[in-house]
Amino acid sequence: MFSKILVANRGEIAVRIMRTAREMNVATxxxxxxxxxxxxxxxxxxxxxxxxxxxxxxxYLNFDKIIVAAKETGAEAIHPxxxxxxxxxxxxxxxxxxxxxxxxxxxxxxxxxxxxTTARRLMSERNVPxxxxxxxxxxxxxxxxxxxxxxxxxxxxxxxxxxGGKGMRIVRTAGELPDAxxxxxxxxxxxxxDGSIYLEKYLDRPRHVEFQILADMYGHVVHLFERECSIQRxxxxxxxxxxxPALSEELRARMGAAAVAAARAAGYVNAGTVEFLLxxxxxxxFLEVNTRLQVEHPITEMTTGLDxxxxxxxxxAGLPLPFAQEDILRRGHAIxxxxxxxxxxxxxxxxxxxxxxxxxxxxxxxxxxxxVYSGWEVPVNYDPILGKLVVWAEDRPSACARxxxxxxxxxxxxxxxPIEFLLDVLSNEKFQAGETHTHFIEEFFSSWRPSxxxxxxxxxxxxxxxxxxxxxxxxxxxxxxxQPISPWHRLGAWDMIR
Length: 498
What we know:
CATH class of the largest domain: Alpha Beta
Structural class: alpha+beta
Strand order of the largest sheet: 13-12-9-10-11-14-21-19
Number of strands: 22
Largest sheet: 8 strands, antiparallel
Radius of gyration: 24 Å
Oligomer: single chain
Distance between the termini: 43 Å
Number of helices: 17
CATH architecture of the largest domain: 2-Layer Sandwich
Number of domains: 3
Shape: globular
Strand content: 15-25%
CATH superfamily of the largest domain: ATP-grasp fold, B domain
């Protein structure tokens, strides 16, 4: 096992990786930019190295600075987390060439799976179902129109590289295709440095179901069951759960086998996620492989009892998987809500600023992976994710109830968050019934507005109450039921959710 690793990331994922490393007696090195000098991941690591200016190109995306930091601190491996360089095959190859270990798949596997059209061809060859569509990128509008006519409208214009919904457009008629293709190519070029696009058949109201896989260096590949990720905004997941309420045991087995076949086809090693779309008839189709640890990995950990970061480090160190597929058991139901510094009233625009007060939810079956604290300044420079609130319970109704309780206890004041929005989604009768799909937010919450009034006054009252602290009682005084001094008694009932 490694004695020291460098975590080439920031925020909550860096903190989460460092905690497992500490349990394994592996020392950690943080890297940070100018704006992150006082960030939680810097305070959590055993040592930290300053990279430079806040611009990602000068810090978290700078190959040379990260590799120099690893070598100068004696780190033997680099864990990329997710985002930034996590799915960059050039960086993975460079790390290996420098005599360090990249905690993730081989660079060649990343290249193979990073291009969607190449991955689609590979999966078709291995009999993994793929969505009808093109198997090569195209820029000529006449050829795109011919392909769309053959596929049948509506179609989806997609970027061949990258992900996260960038370079993606729904086209319902032939007249919409030229503009949609031009905009998608431009957006893809800006986001990924590659303007290549292709067409897929657009599936109406599918579910997004993914399978976590683990693969070691000796050919052993297993899946750790599925995650339902259909609740999305702008093609980005915000609520995930496992198991999926849509899968029978027979369908689960078939999709799991397809996920393992996909990993084997690419010569995959380490942790990854095979994503599928599931239509209303029960047919499923390969979407893509995320060649990294996923944001939603904690729900798999909560139901299987396995630490995925520990497994990543063990695999990267050359250890074989200590279990076979039949050894992996799952119990109960887990849900994750992503907590962002975003304003759901303004189309989830980022909401940077100073956190006046933060309080973590607690209690049975609650896990809160985050990197926030009172007084911390949320920077404008990076992804606005603050944390991941995860709950586990014995069944789905109990998990929903527990998540609602935990969200109400989660306090972040000073920046906008989607906590109240998430509460309304969790309370929706369709969600409660498990009737979700990828357009759920657009269908039921397109005109959402918060119902809570008087937030600013209540928030101020809360902070004052916390600063006052608990009241002391003189000896001999009569003490009845607990009645703390609290502004809530004057403000009336109010759920702390903003």
